[in-house]
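User: Structure please.
Assistant: Input sequence and predicted structure:
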Amino acid sequence: MFRRFAHLSLSTLALAAVTTTSAQAAPQPWTPNTKGNVGPGPTTFNKWEAITAPAESGAVCGNGSPYRFFVNRTTSAADKAKTVVVFEGGGACWDQNACVIGGKSGVLGATNYSGITTTHMNIAGIATPFAQRTALLQKVQTQSWNIVYAPYCTGDVHTGNKFTAYSDADPSKPLPYYHHGFKNIELMANWLGKYFPAQDKLLVTGFSAGGVGATAAYGLIRLAMNPKQGALMADSGPLFQVDRNASPADAPSVLLHNKIRDAWGLDGDEGLASRMIATFPTAGDINNLGSLTEGLAKVFPQDRFGQAVFQADGVFSAFSYVKFYPDIAATPVGPKRDALLHEKWSKEVVTWVDAMKPYPNMGYYVPYGRDFLKSHTLTTGTFGGTGIKEANLADVGVFVDNVLDPSQPLIRAYETGRTVQNSGGIVFLSTISNAIYALIGL
């Protein structure tokens, strides 16, 4: 359980909707295909049902094993036309050591390379209240809805479309790896469009790597399900505003973004970035993967979009900068390294928030920090310790309810104080997880 929590982070990705360059052939727009073989239909209610991707779909985990996602259909008559889709977190990778957890990269790696078992939800189901039918530590209104859970096993924040064989650490034993997160998203979106009845409400959410995945997948899922009301609440997976030609001084994540474009196959005819702009031409700029954030607000002006992150996030920031800045990598784990990470991270958070302000259907929720998971993720375990007192907001649950309520203006809250809050009911986990982080070098 602690290993799973330790890998809930994600390096900034950015799947942009962007104009095609002249060097590329024209990618095709993505359209739902709900008539093909996307796996079996649902048969049960109020329990987790595993849906295994057909082999011909290309939906696979890092080791090439078939991708699985999970469905828990409600028996509540009032909520049968409401669905929450939850994207799992779990790190990211673009080298041989990091792409198999337990390698030399330690926590800065990716989870579930070996595949998703049919019992995956026995552990994953406790990670976030959005994946729970009965509240354990935290209530949220979607617990009575249909719940769809998208596990993470591709190391590409649910966005890649590339096979590679990593040999940088050990050329004698190359690691075959499928970064097929985009294929997995396609398969699940088409399955939902085929087997779920017309929905009144749809919420797409996710934490860490899943926060990136939720934003990246939103357009595909919405097209396939065509709900009356759609909403996004992405937790701790910010797609920072980074032009590919920016200087690291102006946009510290540029080194990461340019690395993952190639490693995960984001560009090109079949890349997610290229396919998104072909589908939504007005959404963003191919040179700025982060433009997808506000691009969704332009494409779906009737929908509501929420983004949440901590200003003091020490996990996502580590993925974003440690491997790309030698001064940070050379600084021992502790307050000095945290300060170097925070300097770059806080700069990009401000730019990210500013980009959302022109769009009335975009909200944001940005407290400073809490004493759990190095201030990474607001919706894992419990919402405790995520309040913004100066705005009279008790916790991130208020923001979730606001995103789902079209009668209210969206909340835009950015804490000006530097308060690290107590996580309440999981304080015992905080102590243990912080000790584990220290041991593994984060």
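The chain has one domain: 2-440.
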